[in-house]
Amino acid sequence: MKKMLPVEELARDSRFVRNRIEDAVFDPRNAVLGQRDLGSARLDPHRPAAADRARQLMHGIFVGEIQALEGAGRTTFDFDDDEVPFHLKLDMARQCWDESRHVEISVKLSEWMGTEIGEFGEATFLYEAACADDAVMRLTGVNRALEGLAIDVFNTMKEFGEISGDPVLRFCEDWMLADEVTHVKMGSDWLRRLTADDPDRRERALEFQRTVDKLFSLGGFRGEGDDSPIHLARRFRQLAGFTTEEIDELAEVAAEAQTEVEQMIEAAHAQPNA
Amino acid sequence: MARVRVVPETFTMVAYDSGTIAGLTEEVAARIGFPDGVEVSIEVDEGLPLPLTGSIADLVDGRGELWFSGGNFEHPQHRGQFDEASARIWIGRDLLRLADRLSSGWEGVPADEDLTDQQRAVWDLFADGRLARLGFEVRESLRRYHFRLAHGFNDVVDTVFERLWRSDLLTWADLEACCAETAAADTREKPKDRQKPKDRQGLRPTSLRPTSA
Questions:
Q1: Averaged over A34-57, what is the pLDDT?
Q2: Which residues of A touch B77 (CB under 8 A)?
Q3: Full-model pTM
Q4: How many structural domains does chain A have?
Q5: Residues A212-217: contacts with CB under 8 Å, at least 24 apart
Q6: Residue A95's CATH number
Q7: How many A×B Cβ pairs under 8 Å?
């Protein structure tokens, strides 16, 4: 079987359509949206378009779970026992078990919300972060950054279920959230163990994590303010092995990402004929 | 056949075509039996993407005025591309609501921007059930989720859903009775900061509201 499977070779049936992240970033509507007073972007059942926002986010979770399964599976297979400890691969196998349950739960939740499989386009950034040559990079980029993002997303969806009185959404998100905390903690623990004698490698891996974190805080998508659709879940991140300093740093990264986008929008509008 | 005008004539941020939208509206109007001779203007806010959906359908001086978020017509898999299937449902739903406004038993219905989320949800559902029986591809599970989100996740709400989904002849008073029935069973905490109408209904800035001219 082939090692280091490129993202182009992921198996999908005809229901799925892949989106490019650059199409989202360079969408001309972004600049116009920044000028509009649309109220808070926070996911809240009393906000406009709440159902469609929640459905699209749920579908994003679903495809994210597929890719998390694929990524953890690749890490189990891509590295020989002399490259990574066997117990790390066992942890990744355990994560595959969790992720496959999450995929099934997400399919059921999507049906519950009236969404069809493949209804929305699929972005493949999660799997791409799982293609790093160094297993430690995968632990920071996927387990700590993207599974960390999953903690924030699931907590936000759980709250959405609580406020809207949706018992199915609330319970399912809570169950998946518990697993995500474990996945992030695996990443934190293995990062410390594998880089205990190699501070340079650890710093490179953490820098990769910061890059991924910043990418997915883009435009205030994730943050601590009321305007962010996804809220930083401090308590659950602490349970997952993040220090208070690391969470503060992540909040700063999110704030920086929002400021940068606001500046880009201002610059775009300052140009003639913009 | 209804006379249709679409604004903007040319879209610059999304791959939509005003002629296609006008043609689709005329086709849908004929299919649902929208009254002949009623002029319909459609404004599409192309700056709003999916999932920021929303719409407004009001009568102004006897003319139908529809406003849609651009997200309503956007293909969910292809950013910025027109999705005829979604557009057909949104246009059909709001043309039926316009037709309701022209019917007896619907006098005194508030303007769309003054409707509560619950009033809007029952009316949308009443329209969707009729669309489904006319052969439009309305996804019942999706409508059920929208309805539950507005009214609550309980058996009373599901019973009202079934009734509305199968109804063809209702009045505004009937829809208000449905709202009262679900409200009595809704144990959810009420939001502390109720949304202003423009925020609730359609993400629509005041400056873009149509004039009556």
A1: 85
A2: 17, 19, 118-121
A3: 0.90
A4: 1
A5: A212/A129, A212/A140, A212/A141, A212/A145, A212/A146, A213/A145, A213/A148, A213/A149, A213/A250, A213/A253, A213/A254, A214/A253, A214/A256, A214/A257, A215/A125, A216/A125, A216/A145, A216/A146, A216/A149, A217/A250, A217/A253, A217/A254, A217/A257, A217/A258
A6: 1.20.1260.10
A7: 114
